[in-house]
């Protein structure tokens, strides 16, 4: 049986060379507050400067449990404060990645539609996101999570400590200056976020570079983005390569290099991408 997967053809993107080129994004999970409730938070660090931009707390143990609409709402607030990053550097876990690498998650497609590139690190390679990983350790010490009585207090402390890290904490390698003193572009160089900047054609162009691999079941059916497609019983138990045709927004299906069908990718409509429902 061939495992569902996608064959990546992502261009190589190196390390950030300017402020807000790349944000490293990661989650701190399985936290318990003083009131007994669980929490997690999403940390965003500017790769070029090492600046802690923000952390967003959620009332869930794992970031994968947070409804995508809440993640989207939080990111829009971050963009309102800092503008848009050129790219997000993330691991392969939810919500931005897919551990099995079988599809691109809805929140990642939404970011791509807003002209934010995605950089997925190699599996089990936390060193690729070293700055945000270190920031996670620092943030948890500074805010003293277990001493936070409520989620609201946790968020308040995260906000305060992020300001201290950027604006008040002297950095030895920066000649004992703060990050904001050395990199004032943190506040002055922005790519503004606008809802009208949403462009689904960026998603279609991104997906068209991929080949998805699926194996049909005993009836000739396969699934892609949680939508079933029937290739008829004659094609049962076959390995199928799938490509997106941007001109007609159809999935084209290949077996042994031969086209065996083409069907509309209705779940990739602009509304579905915008509302994070491409997998529903």
Describe what you observe in this structure.
By secondary structure, this protein is α+β, with helices and mostly antiparallel strands. It folds into two domains: 12-189, Nucleotidyltransferase, domain 5; 200-274, no CATH class. Helix content is 27%, strand content 25%. It has eight helices and twelve strands. It has helices at residues 68-82, 106-113, 130-143, 151-167, 179-182, 185-188, 200-208, 270-274; strands at 5-7, 22-32, 38-46, 52-58, 87-90, 117-120, 211-215, 221-224, 227-230, 239-245, 250-255, 258-264. The strands form three sheets. The protein has a five-stranded antiparallel sheet with strand order 1-7-10-11-12. It has a five-stranded mixed sheet with strand order 4-3-2-5-6, sandwiched between helices. The model has no long low-confidence stretch (mean pLDDT 92).
Quick overview of this protein structure:
With 280 residues, this protein is α+β, with helices and mostly antiparallel strands.
Strand content: 25-35%
Q: What's the end-to-end separation, in Å?
A: 25 Å
Instruction: Name the structural class.
Output: alpha+beta
* CATH-scheme architecture of the largest domain: 2-Layer Sandwich
- Order of strands, main sheet, comes to 1-7-10-11-12
Instruction: Compute the number of helices.
Output: 8
Reading off the top of the CATH hierarchy, the class of the largest domain is best stated as: Alpha Beta
Q: Regions with pLDDT < 50 over 5+ consecutive residues?
A: none
Q: What overall geometry do the principal axes of the alpha carbons give? A: elongated
Q: What composes the largest sheet? A: 5 strands, antiparallel
* Order of H and E elements: EEEEHEHEHHHHHEEEEEEH
């Amino acid at each position: 049986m061939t495992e569902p997967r996608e064959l990546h053809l992502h261009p190589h993107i190196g390390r950030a060379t300017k402020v807000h080129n790349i944000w490293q994004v990661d989650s701190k999970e399985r936290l318990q507050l003083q009131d007994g409730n669980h929490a997690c938070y999403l940390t965003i660090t500017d790769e070029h400067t090492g600046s802690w931009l923000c952390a967003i707390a959620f009332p869930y143990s794992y970031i994968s449990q947070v409804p995508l609409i809440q993640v989207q709402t939080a990111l829009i607030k971050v963009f309102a404060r800092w503008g848009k990053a050129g790219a997000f550097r993330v691991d392969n876990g939810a919500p931005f990645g897919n551990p099995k690498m079988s599809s691109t998650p809805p929140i990642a497609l939404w970011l791509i539609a807003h002209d934010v590139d995605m950089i997925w690190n190699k599996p089990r390679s936390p060193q690729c996101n070293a700055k945000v990983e270190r920031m996670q350790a620092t943030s948890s010490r500074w805010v003293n999570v277990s001493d936070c009585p409520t989620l609201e207090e946790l968020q308040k402390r995260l906000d305060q400590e992020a300001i201290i890290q950027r604006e008040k904490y002297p950095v030895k390698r920066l000649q004992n200056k703060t990050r904001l003193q050395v990199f004032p572009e943190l506040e002055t160089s922005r790519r503004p976020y606008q809802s009208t900047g949403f462009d689904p054609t960026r998603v279609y162009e991104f997906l068209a570079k991929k080949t998805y691999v699926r194996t049909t079941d005993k009836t000739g059916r396969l699934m892609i983005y949680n939508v079933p497609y029937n290739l008829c019983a004659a094609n049962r138990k076959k390995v199928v390569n799938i490509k997106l045709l941007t001109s007609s927004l159809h999935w084209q299906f290949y077996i042994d290099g031969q086209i065996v069908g083409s069907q509309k990718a209705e779940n990739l409509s602009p509304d579905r991408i915008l509302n994070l429902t491409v997998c529903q």
